[in-house]
Every structure is written in structure tokens, then in C-alpha cells.
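Working notes for the structural subgroup meeting. M.R. asked for a predicted model of this chain before we commit to crystallization trials. I am recording the input and output together here so anyone reviewing the notebook later can reproduce the run.

Input as submitted:
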Amino acid sequence: MKSDRPLVVVLVALSAGYLAAVGLISQPAGQYAAVGPRAFPLVVGLGLLVCSAAIAFQVRDDEQPVPVDWHRFLSCALWFLAYLGLFETVGHLVSTAVFITCQARLLGSTAWRRNVFCGVTVSVAIYALLDRFLGLPLPPGWLG
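Returned structure, recorded in C-alpha cell form:
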């Protein structure tokens, strides 16, 4: 449990920062909807805080700490930053499919066909849900 303290401190700090940023989201005046633009980010922030607390109070006497693979962590983080940077330009469908495919490989999957299939399937499913059913436009990018 002692080795989890730095992780818990970082997670609580990130959760608190995220919740502080949620407070900066503006609420439109005269809104009649019960759920505003802060609702979902607030739930995510509270979930992060609860998970951080769960890690802090977890009792593990016999488990050895798992070493962090920093190379894999940094690779995943860099792919995520690239995804964020290319999302508007390349578009949702292509960038999300490539991102999921590459993340699956980074996390240990060696089946490229399955990775590509999952990446494309998830990308199209998210597009269909958000753009077609909920009416939230996603950037079309190269395919638009």
C-alpha cells in the first residue's frame, strides 16, 4: 500500500484539477433542461475521485507491486496526443480507427486484422451513435 501513495496523490490532484475545470464550463442562461453541459464531465470527475479513493484504501498485503512500463505508457500518451491533434483535420472515422488499432497493438494485441476490424467497427459505431442518432456533428475530415 505504501507504493500506491504517489499514484493516489497524482490521481487525486488530477481529479481535483479536472473537477475545477468542470466548474469553468459555462451554463447557458435561461436553460430549461434539467441536465446541462456540466453534468457528464462532473460525473466523470467524481468517478475519477472515487476510483482514486478506492486505490488509497485498498488493502494488499501479499501482492508485489507491478512495475510500470514507462515506454508503453509514454507511447500510449503520445498516440493519444496525436489523435487529439489530428481529429479535426483527418476526421473522426479515420483518426479514431487508426488510434484504436494502434492502441490495441501497444497494449499487447498482435492480431492486426482483429485490431483493424475493432478500430473500424468502434469508429463507425461511435459515428453512428453521435452523428446520426444524437445529432452531434463530428468532424468529417478527409471523408467529408
